[in-house]
């Protein structure tokens, strides 16, 4: 099972700031964790094709969509870019969905993403696309941050999230909250409500988790390599319509890097391809 990585930007010392380039220091316990998750996901795919019940597959698809919303509408557009305002009830919903996705805490996710925009595809970028596809995709999650990335992370003003009670709660109780919402509840529900086996329920949930993680990581790898650049041809982020479909509207990446404050993350919203924008608009209409 993946674990929440230590935050090298908090109380740094000479011991935990290695003199290295981004991606050069491998964290082997994370490699082992990610290896297990991917093997379990492949087994989950096999079970999906052979023995998993149809309601479990439907539940997995539902979980896929709502957990991506926790990343796109929550960690990304709200807490990283502050591109729209959300009242307390919506923030609670988003922190639950974000915890179900388990991509670290919102504070850590937002800090890394703000650094990514400030230092996009340079040595200060934690997922620098110029460092290679594997590093920008998922390799950066299994390696120590470079000195420059740590320096840039320390320079980020994160006071908004340190002062946010919802973000503080998730950060304080990260392991029990994220562990329960991401792994325990999604495994228990199929077993309790329609008699799915523990083996099937667990591995289907891991398949969902790993799929969402890859789709999210594709934004900083695939969308920085393949696509077109109608807004700024001098940067790597590109428009990738196919990726936007899977990422619920996050594939209009050239536009997003030029106009990161737009809550729609795409010109004119492109709502047909952006369930994230439709989600935000719905809660805006009901005043949340």
UniProtKB/TrEMBL annotation:
Q: Which residues form the Fatty acid desaturase domain?
A: 54-260
Name its co-factor(s). Fe(2+)
- Extract the PROSITE patterns matched here: FATTY_ACID_DESATUR_1 (PS00476)
List all membrane-crossing ranges. Answer: 27-46, 58-79, 173-194
- Give the Pfam families listed for this entry: FA_desaturase
Q: Which GO MF terms are attached to this record?
A: iron ion binding; stearoyl-CoA 9-desaturase activity
| Protein localization | Membrane
Chief site of localization: membrane
Highest taxon above the source species: Eukaryota
Topology with respect to the bilayer: Multi-pass membrane protein
Q: Name one GO biological process term.
A: unsaturated fatty acid biosynthetic process
Q: Which GO terms describe its cellular component?
A: endoplasmic reticulum membrane
Keywords assigned: Fatty acid biosynthesis, Fatty acid metabolism, Iron, Lipid biosynthesis, Lipid metabolism, Membrane, Metal-binding, Oxidoreductase, Transmembrane, Transmembrane helix
Domain commentary? The histidine box domains are involved in binding the catalytic metal ions.
UniProt family annotation: Belongs to the fatty acid desaturase type 1 family.
Q: What is this protein called?
A: Desaturase ezi-D11 beta
Q: Which organism is it from?
A: Ostrinia nubilalis
